[in-house]
Amino acid sequence: MDNYKSGFVTLLGRPNVGKSTLVNKLIGQKIAITSTKAQTTRNKLKGILTTQTSQIIFIDTPGIHKPHHLLGQRLVNNAKSAIGGVDLLLLILDSNQQPGRGDSYIRDFLIKNKSQGKFIAVLNKWDLLEENDKKLRMKQYNQLIEDKLVHFLPVSAITGEGCKDLVKLIENFLPVGPMLYPKDTISDQPLNILLSELIREQVLYRTKEEIPHSVAVKIEKLEIIERKDKRDLTAILATIIVERKSQKGILIGKGGGMLKEIGASARKNMMKLIEGPIYLELFVKVVPNWRKKESKLNEFGYEED
């Protein structure tokens, strides 16, 4: 494969523009959690797409926003640091909204700091626009970006519209090189991180606004139990961390009902990831103001790059 290509591609954008959903669609499998709530992604996640002609390593980053605590500052810093040493940058924009100050901020940051010549602007959520609005929205974002980019491409991470074209476009700008990961690898994240994120996703999905941004999940124990004449059982012990006692009560629910629902749904997604039976036990722990404490951020896996 003399003309085989491989390289690293970073996705940047405001919170809730659909970066993680897009990575999942491009990879063809769920590796990143998604939510309608903003600031869902907390770790830089590598999703790996291997084709007959290329291997693309996508780096999904936290949404760039104005931070209100140490956790937020670390997330933004880690997102910004993800532009270094990559082969291409994707600026993910929400085409269902007009360009805003957040988009302008990220545009200016990319133009000022990008290590290579250009980047691709990806207009996500294109399926949500009425046909009569698409021309205007394209004009608005062209005015935002001007002519400082490789290409402008509308896509839908939900329907898949434009995704094949995006992959082909990315390949055009990757260097010739060998596979960097085994061909069946879809992510380089440790298993405990992927599992903890699947639990956190269910918390985001099932709880109100007062919970999501103050929750973390820590895998306390992960054990593979061998069984005769049966598939190995993966036993997982996890702790959901919140900041207030009232939040703990919401997560546990009446008679433990909410926690059971979170566990059952997370377990289903874990079984798809591991492709085997799962035993999952969840606990809830209150750690006041953990998002503002450096030691707790490090303990829960939110270290600064």
Strand order of the largest sheet: 2-3-1-4-5-6
Radius of gyration: 20 Å
User: Could you report the average pLDDT, rounded to the nearest whole number?
Assistant: 83
Shape: globular
Helix content: 25-40%
- Total domains: 2
Largest sheet data: 6 strands, mixed
Do you know the CATH topology of the largest domain?
A: Rossmann fold
CATH architecture of the largest domain: 3-Layer(aba) Sandwich
Terminal CA distance reads 35 Å
Tally the helices: what do you get?
9
Number of strands: 9
Query: What is the ordering of alpha helices and beta strands?
Result: EHEEHEHEHEHHEEHHEH
Could you give me the name of the CATH homologous superfamily of the largest domain? P-loop containing nucleotide triphosphate hydrolases
Give the helix/strand class.
Answer: alpha/beta
Spans with pLDDT under 50 lasting ≥5 residues?
Answer: none
CATH top level label of the largest domain: Alpha Beta
